[in-house]
Amino acid sequence: MAEQRQEEISVCGVGRFRAIAVFASKQLEGTPFRFAAVMDTGSPEPYNFRPDRMRLVLRCLHPEPRCFIVGEGIPEEDNAAAVEVWTEFVAERKVESPLLINVSLLVTNVKGLRLT
């Protein structure tokens, strides 16, 4: 029987440090998800995250990203800007089955839980 190949899903991410994306990409091994681009808020100008740079990156990737991951360590205003740019991109390009993973929101919610 022939092995069925999973469709690769291109991932773009924004986080505090690129090294975290390297770690995260190892966690995605064996899945169809592949990091195509990572931007960070920890690099100096002109290499760090800015909404206009993210718009450009998203439009240059092939295949187009279908998944966007926002990391925990970025400032709230950058988080909001990144999500806004992703939402615009998805609507403009009519991305099929887009996925947004906002780790900042997940971690904030988990930190508020009491485990007893």
Concise structural overview:
By secondary structure, this protein is of the alpha/beta class. The protein is 41% helix and 20% strand. The longest helix has 18 residues.
Sheet with the most strands: spatial strand order: 2-1-3-4
Q: How many E-type strands?
A: 4
What string, H for helix and E for strand, traces the elements in order? Answer: EHEHEHEH
So what's the overall shape? Answer: globular
Decide which structural class fits the backbone: alpha/beta
Instruction: Report on the biggest sheet.
Output: 4 strands, parallel
CATH architecture: 3-Layer(aba) Sandwich
SS field, number of helical segments: 4
Q: What is CATH's topology name?
A: Rossmann fold
Rg over CA atoms: 15 Å
* Estimated helix fraction: 40-55%
Give the rounded overall mean pLDDT.
Answer: 85
Q: What would your notes on this structure say?
A:
The protein has 116 residues and is of the alpha/beta class. It has a single domain (9-62, 71-111), classed as Rossmann fold (3-Layer(aba) Sandwich), CATH 3.40.50. The chain is built from 4 helices and 4 strands, in the order E-H-E-H-E-H-E-H. The chain has helices at residues 18-27, 51-60, 76-93, 103-111, and strands at residues 9-15, 33-40, 67-70, 99-102. It has a 4-stranded parallel beta sheet, with helices on both faces. Strand 3, helix 3 (76-93) and strand 4 form a beta-alpha-beta unit. Helix 2 (51-60) packs parallel to helix 3. It is globular and about 45 Å long.
